[in-house]
Amino acid sequence: MDTPLREPTYLILTALAGEPLHGYGLIGEVAALSDGRVSLRPGTLYGALDRLVDAALVEVDREEVVDGRLRRYYRLSPGGHDLLAAETERMRRNVEAATARLRRRSPAPKPGTPRLAGGLA
């Protein structure tokens, strides 16, 4: 995959890097990883999982019946692991570049800060 991952996809893969999770577990983990910024609806999540399974980035780990309903657990595939690692490294390099530029930039004076005239201390 040559293009950067969309944030929800990145967070789904990140959530699955820890352990296999079922749908609602993934929704909660993505919310936690994003500090609540990304809130996946079930339809959105399951559509994304179908695409990730089709792309061989995620695999079905197991299925179980809970309260008469099928619960499917997903895990990160080896290809998903490699893609997540590559995307994380790409983002890390971007963060390093931005951090270095921000450090080089001199801070702007705060509004209302008195300026000293030459020679005064």
UniProtKB/TrEMBL annotation:
Q: Which Pfam families does the entry mention?
A: PadR
What residue spans carry the region label Disordered?
Answer: 98-121
Chain ranges of the Transcription regulator PadR N-terminal domain? 12-85
Residues spanning the signal sequence: none
Q: SUPFAM superfamilies, per this entry? A: Winged helix' DNA-binding domain (SSF46785)
Q: What is this protein called?
A: Transcriptional regulator PadR-like family protein
Question: Which organism is this entry from?
Answer: Micromonospora siamensis
